[in-house]
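Students often ask what a holo structure prediction actually looks like on paper. The answer is less mysterious than it sounds. You provide the chain, you provide the ligand, and the output is a string of discrete structure tokens encoding the 3D arrangement of the protein together with magnesium ion.
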Amino acid sequence: MSENIVNKWLKGLEKTRKVAFGRIANFLGASEINDETWEELEALLIQADMGVETTLAVVDSVREEIHSKGLTQNEELVQALKQDLSDRLDEPKFPDFMEKPTVIMLVGVNGSGKTTSAAKLAYQYQSQGKSVLLVAADTYRAAAIDQLRIWADRVNVPMVAGQQGGDPGAAAYDGITAAVARKSDIVIIDTAGRLHTRYNLMEEIKKVERVSGKALPGAPHATWLVLDATTGQNALQQAKSFQKALKIDGVILAKLDSSAKGGMAFAIKAQLGLPIVFAGLGEAVEDLRIFDRKSFVNGIIES
Ligand SMILES: Nc1nc2c(ncn2[C@@H]2O[C@H](COP(=O)(O)OP(=O)(O)O)[C@@H](O)[C@H]2O)c(=O)[nH]1
Ligand SMILES: [Mg+2]
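The corresponding structure tokens follow.
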């Protein structure tokens, strides 16, 4: 992996490392391994928004590893912890699809990072030599359509937008139909995160999902939930309600660079059973990266 990418992860995870996990390396480096070590480790992992269940499992398994191997050096503890944490996350894999066009739908609450991530994804797939079409299905606010248009122009990708105030399902339908006609490889649908009070967000998004399948059987081929990493454990509650309504295939963890709560990555896997496909490590278009567990763990724990 190039030094540039390693640095991006280190920089992007600076807050999580400094506020939470960094202190783990510090106190491990300073003390003998004893009962207090485990209690302190437990407290720090919970503060890092890892979730209680995952924290207890991590502490138990690292303690077991240390005892069974008779490890006494703190450096060995750090390595055992890193290995355990890494094993709890999925192997990185660029999400490639066979279907043409492949329809990817992004969902999530308002402000989580959907529109920005849609543009960054367009950039990623385009960099892989794929032709991409962006669809603005957040039709409730003119500003939402304009925001995606600015990004589409910036990454030089065509965009299909619904009518402002129109039906988001119709926007998805038109977008997919246009992509079929243009022989695009990838369609990325940006959806709304908050709707006018008389609509129900989940019902509306379910409709976008259903209508996509009418435009192209099998679509959407992937539905990714965009979560704001700064919201920590709260994001998991949101995720559960999206999972109840839709078939979610993975998570885009946006704003990791603004967050000190990166520990939630472990809770996403453990509590939701979802892989993290991409991570947002900054605001620039190239700052969306495949979620790489090794870089992630090295980024949160200094050694
Ligand atoms: N630092 C940082 N900011 C992000 C990231 N992703 C999104 N944002 C910012 O979060 C805000 C909301 O993003 P937006 O895409 O409009 O969210 P949406 O309402 O879900 O569409 C914007 O100001 C984005 O620039 C990220 O990975 N890092
Ligand atoms: Mg948006």
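Residues 114-115, 138, 144, 190 surround magnesium ion (ligand 2) (CB under 6 Å).
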